[in-house]
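User: Once you have settled down, look closely at the record that follows, taking as long as you need, and be ready to discuss the fold:
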Amino acid sequence: MDKNLLHQERLFSAILNNVYDGIIAIDQKLSIMFINRAAERMIGWTNEKAAGKTAPQSLSVIEAQKLSPLIPGGLPQDETPLLFRNVILKSHIGETFIIEGSITKIQVPDDTGLPEYVMIFRDTSEMKRLSATVDFQAHHDALTGLLNRESFIPKLQEVLEDLRRTAGFYALLMFNIDQYQEIGIGNEVVAGDELLREAADIIRFHVQRRDISARLRDDIFVLILRDCTVEEAVGVVQRLRKAAGNLRLSSGASSGISLSIGLLALTDAYTDTNDVLHRADQACSEARQQGGDRLVIYGEH
């Protein structure tokens, strides 16, 4: 009987230590009774060192939304398992994981009548990172990291709707790089791609965080400047043109570039995104036709 019991205990321990999920058993006083190897790797304690330590003191598990400790605040009140996700686990050695799992209340038949708990969880950090990467790639231009056209259009629509609800000042800039075709053809694709990435960096440096920027196609970029009058937008244009003129490519393909820029003041009269982009494109095209390296404000002649 003793041999069978010992065999069962060893088998049970082997099973717990070889499952992928982390498992932590907590007693009536919220002291750690057992952690398996998967949990050891994540919390930074071995089973021997963790045994007897109180869970609230030795386990840093924080609900991401409420920013409150999962233990003891999240312990179930009955036998229904508590399911959790997007919980931040900080290990004893400083690593951070995003976990999901469950905590189950177990009523042990003993003299105390007090419950014990089993916490089962898995590391979803990599899944979250992959999901974030896929989401970013779906909404952003792969080369520049700016929004792509498909994601920019809904944001432009939101701006137009906001203008109809509240008074405000928005300016839309559309520009292309005058030397793009020459650099791309004369120095192959690498120099052209470098030029587009540098243009995106110039945009990020000279716009506010609340502004919206995107690469629509080829070398066509567009910006929406929030809370920005035409006069203020002209100041932004001047800074963009100056930065472009000082640009030096690592390939040596250019000693500075110039931009053809169209500016459209957005008002509550505009309701259609295609119409807005068409008007901005008209101003941008006019700037190119006039020789480039200039700003054309839509509606001003």
Remarks:
- The mean pLDDT is 85.
- The first helix runs from residue 2 to 18.
- The chain has ten helices and eleven strands.
